[in-house]
Amino acid sequence: MNFTLKTAALWIVRIASAALFLMAGSAKLTGGDAEVFAKIGLGQWFRYFTGVLEALGAILLVTPLALYGAALLVPVMVGAAATHIFIVGGSPAMALVLLAAMLFVVWGKWGGK
Question: N or C: which end of the chain has fewer CB within 10 A?
Fold first, then answer.
């Protein structure tokens, strides 16, 4: 992958992921997914905490601090995938796709020189 193609791919992934994380984080902060988080059993504070992490990560993804945003979101997506698999059911596909996207950003911004 040449530098220009890599840069373009990183920007596309960063912008698309930021939009998805901002929507998901906003939904959690405004009351969405309350029943899912009730099923998890950690209380609604965890919904707000997750929403803040997703929104913060989304903002960081479109700044020069994208590496930190992606690194912040990797464990969030690992937790989301595990939660779908072991607790709430449903498909972990979106969490796994976003996990792969965040790992791509980490690789591209830090280790993929």
Answer: C
3 state SS of 54: helix
- Output the six-digit token pair for 48: 């707000």
Q: Under a CB-based contact definition with an 8 Å cutoff, are residues 39 and 88 in contact?
A: yes
Contacts of 78 (CB under 8 A, 6+ apart): 99
Q: What is the pTM of this model?
A: 0.89
Residue 18, amino acid: A
pLDDT digits (tens, 9 = 90+) for 53-82: 999 999 999 999 999 999 999 999 999 999
| CB contact at 8 A, 98 and 20 | yes
DSSP one-letter string for 58-83: HHHHTSTTHHHHHHHHHHHHHHHHHH
